[in-house]
Amino acid sequence: MSLKDRRNNDGYKNWLRVGLALLATRDGLTDVTLRAAKELHAELKDKLGDSVENCKCNPKKKQECKDCKPWRQELASYYKGNKSQIYWTNCTPSKWSKEPWEVAKGHNI
């Protein structure tokens, strides 16, 4: 199919519109998500401090240390679903007090 034929094809035009709509949606959701992650991170850091920076646990091996326990408990309290479905292996606890996205990653499904 030539480029001219594609430009005149209703299905192709619709496909392009959908692609543009998905890009716009992604951009909008990214801004909202990052803003919410930063707000939650600031709230948690004010409440819990930087104690988690000394964390030595390994979420991939399901090892938990005393330094990250308050952060882990607080993060779990924000999770609305089944607590066993929190993806602790998806984040790095020692970065929770430094990086807002690390806080949000545990809730990514």
UniProtKB/TrEMBL annotation:
InterPro entries from the UniProt entry: DUF4559
Domain of life: Eukaryota
Pfam families with a match to the protein in the record: DUF4559
Protein name stated in the entry: Hypp9432 protein
Organism: Branchiostoma lanceolatum
